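Hey all, quick one. A colleague (J.T.) asked me to put the uridine-diphosphate-N-acetylglucosamine job into the tracker so the inputs and the structure tokens live in one place instead of scattered across chat threads. No bug as far as I know, just bookkeeping. Sequence used:
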Amino acid sequence: MRIVHVVGARPNFMKIAPIMRALRQADDVDQLLIHTGQHYDSSLSEDFFHDLELPSPDLNLGIGSGSHAEQTGRIMIALEPALQRTEPDWVFTVGDVNSTLAAALVAAKLHIPLAHVEAGLRSHDRAMPEEINRVVTDQLSDALFTTEPSANENLKNEGIEPDRIHYVGNVMIDSLDAYRARAAELDVDESLGLEPVQYVLVTFHRPRNVDSRARLAAILSALAAIAADYPVVFPMHPRTARNVKQYQLEAELAPLNVLAPTRYLEFLALMDRAGLVITDSGNIQEETTVLGVPCITLRPNTERPITVSEGTNRLFDGEPHDLVDIALEAITAPRRPCRPHLWDGHAAERIAQVTTSRLARLQPGARDRRRLASAAS
Ligand code: UD1
């Protein structure tokens, strides 16, 4: 059985690493890794491959940045011949970035069975590009691996047959469990002069929060007010950095401890010892839930509702200046680690088990069907 994994952006790498590791234990599985090149800076890509002990990609499509259509289209054009050449029995795609969507469209049109890891999550907010990527990818997928009950419900409501849905848990937490101890040894907080639990860790980059000058300026000003009481550590995403410069907001950063995007292990270490995390990321909502660190998510909705109902996550979409009191109160909250069902560090093993049993049975004949389809077209 040949599997081609397609990844492209930072949050994909923590998900594919445990899956590839688990599938390496299986007999008769040949794995290839294709990187689309959506993220290309070392700090968003290569450093993560190193920290997560991922093999170098077999192929890097070198696509880079662009508008949504440009980026998705360029990935599709480069990926199609790569999949024709490598003839996988299954394509695996993870998460909800543009690379995920492009891989799904190409695999489906080449009649290659498609597996989507982290399927079914819905913010029900189509203003988010990721929501569009999630909905389309799931519709095209033959196997859908889910992380939480809301995802199973969403997929059933969208007409996905239950036997295509595999509730396996959360591979992001597999990586967290695998690397937490190693991250702690780095003592990153100490090297930055931070006291454990006495600092706020911030990361945000969603277009909604950073693509308008007024909103970005108001968030930075709220963070500056928080920094009067607690150090605010802010590894800045390139999109946010680009807009801070474009809107000439550099002076607003002075009270903050701004860092370049951190490596996987450094960020995990900083999260683990933070008193509070403020973010608009998807996966950080999950990681802080397991770590028990209070998390404020700067969004009106979340596609990961279990992090609110069971975990430490709280949504905030008010005026940024109201964030200050909420943050100062949250940082004193006691730690409350929580493990939603199947967030136990073994999700990738379950994916490998389903792959070698059920998916392997579905795939015979897929190549023949593809040959017939291409002969007919
Ligand atoms: C992408 C994902 C988002 C994810 C985020 C994690 C989509 C639609 N969005 O957003 O879901 O949360 O990755 O990081 O797929 N840039 C660099 N270096 C790079 C890559 C990008 O400087 O290696 C800059 C460029 O100015 C680029 C901008 O960041 O235009 C945005 O990059 P892009 O990949 O389009 O989206 P992200 O905001 O990173």
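Adding what we noticed when we looked at it: The mean pLDDT is 96. The pocket of uridine-diphosphate-N-acetylglucosamine is lined by residues 9-11, 38-41, 44, 65, 97-98, 129-130, 205, 237-239, 242 (CB under 6 Å).
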